[in-house]
Amino acid sequence: MEILDYIEAYWPRIVRNVSVDEGTLIGLPRPYMAPAEDPIFQEMFYWDSYFTAVGLSGTPREQLVVDMAENMVAMLRRFGMIPNASRLYFLSRSQPPLSTAMFRLAFETKEARGDADACAFLAEAMNLAALEHRSVWLGEIHPHIRRVHAGLSRYFDANYTDELASFESGWDRSTRCQNRWLDHLPICLNSVLYLREIDLEWASRRLGDDESADAWRSAADARAASVRDLMWDETASFLISITSPANAMA
After folding, report:
1. Chain center to CA of 124
2. Is the pLDDT of residue 115 over 80?
3. DSSP-assigned letter for residue 211
């Protein structure tokens, strides 16, 4: 019990409430999780929040799943994208885009509780995610030059450096891609984009829009076909990231 009491007492140290902008810190409408008492990392990180939400789902703290999803919606409304984390200086890049999975988890949480606004939340969140998907992750003009070859996308940063593009990937400063991130079509990113398109298909069907659902399924199928065609290594028997032959700019 002593350990459980310690954990319970620790929660106020890792839940943040920043409702208005504070310097570079972006104000968000709901509480979120952040590293404990760290003077630097006070922001809500993008893909970290999804994995945290998975762990919180079905626990007494599951309201934070909804809260952090609502914060993502607020950033989409304000900026048209979800930045690396809730800092103004992170708007040059994002992170592996797991927002649709987050929205689906939040919707299921709200639906299980009988929240009357569950479908309205899902409709707005997924509509904003669809707009971001097209303009950011399928972007072909600055500041979002990500789709570069055969319908597939790369990690990017508006400052156009390989190192900052690696930060978008979550593989910060790793030796992956030989630090030529702008030259590569990563299998991880395109797998996540496939997941997004499947999530958007699911949401469209759940909301009764079969035409949009069919379009998202076609987009997902086209991405899967390109991945199999370009990234399957028969000798190694697994999918690999590749250097993009179309990336003459990087």
Report:
1. 16
2. yes
3. H
pTM for this structure?
A: 0.94
Q: What is the pLDDT of residue 247?
A: 57
Answer whether the bond into residue 143 is a cis peptide, omega within 30°: yes
- Asked if 165 contacts 155 with a C-beta cutoff of 8 angstroms, the reply is yes
Question: What single-letter amino acid sits at 47?
Answer: W
pLDDT digits (tens, 9 = 90+) for 126-184: 999 999 999 999 999 999 999 999 999 999 999 999 999 999 999 988 888 888 999 99
CA distances from 71 to 17, 145, 213 (A): 11, 25, 25
Q: Using CA atoms, how far apart are residues 181 and 46, in angstroms rounded to an integer?
A: 20
The closest alpha carbon to 96, from 196, 189, 175, belongs to: 189
- Helical (H) or strand (E) element with 141: strand 140-141
The answer to whether 126 touches 100, Cβ cutoff 8 Å, is yes
Domain definitions of the chain by residue range: 12-134, 138-250
